[in-house]
Amino acid sequence: MYEFNYHRPGTLEEAKKMLSASEDPKIIAGGMTLLPTMKFRLARPSDLIDLGNISKLHGIRDDGDSLFIAAMTIHAEVASNELVRAGIPALAELAGNIGDPQVRNRGTLGGSIANNDPAADYPAALLALDAVVQTDKRSIPSERFLSGMFETALQSDEIVTGVTFSRPKRAAYAKFPNPASRYAIAGVMVAEYADSVRVAVTGAAACAFRAAELEQALSSDFSAAALDGLEIDAGELNSDLHASPEYRAHLVILLAKRAVAAAGG
């Protein structure tokens, strides 16, 4: 690991000043990806700006039709928080199955979505729950926020402050995890709203995506049987030592059926 300057601002305004004043800064939240990257000397920031001491970036709020979760809220808190468990239980379930206890007690919502790992769980929740990412500058709908593998719409000096998740009538998440990392080889979240059904897939492609054909089928019949005979095009799916594109395409349909059944369909 190379030498760097470490900062721990107490306010968002201080963090923004440090960002603009540093030569090549990196924001650190839980550090689940950044620190290993630095240890392998694949990143060499001049300054690390730790957001952990900014009280404004912690907490969960019920806004009626939606839940707001601040960026520095750890996965374990999302999983155990009563507002989340009562308002969007599928989101609590998703958070409770991220990684292992060590990751869940250090990793944060904001850090995860800003990194946008193609196998992370939260991107599926962003898309399925019609989320809006809040930053210090603007509000970004989830489908504009997630732009590619490890890429988002965030500007270099922009800080995620939280996420607003729309409350569905019912929802569920199912994933096929890598047995070592617990990252999703494929994961599917389904969410039913008054006028639509949203189906989001993570782990299967370079970036999380919505499955329009599955959404259409479930909009007229919210049941696992409605997905019988449907197929996902494997042409754009990931191929690696864990699974072929064809296997991931099979998993997406299987997991979608499990998620629908878990949601009560």
Can you characterise this structure?
With 265 residues, this protein is α+β, with helices and mostly antiparallel strands. It folds into 3 domains: 5-50, Uridine Diphospho-n-acetylenolpyruvylglucosamine Reductase, domain 2, CATH 3.30.43; 55-166, 2-Layer Sandwich (Uridine Diphospho-n-acetylenolpyruvylglucosamine Reductase, domain 3), CATH 3.30.465; 170-262, CO dehydrogenase flavoprotein, C-terminal domain (Enolase-like, domain 1, 2-Layer Sandwich), CATH 3.30.390. The chain is 32% helix and 24% strand. The strands form 4 sheets. It has a 5-stranded antiparallel β-sheet with strand order 4-5-10-6-7. Strands 11-12-13-14 form a 4-stranded antiparallel β-sheet, with helices on both faces. A 3-stranded parallel β-sheet has the order 1-3-2, with helices on one face. β4 (60-62) and β5 (66-70) form a beta hairpin. The protein starts with a strand and ends with a helix. The model has no long low-confidence stretch (mean pLDDT 97).
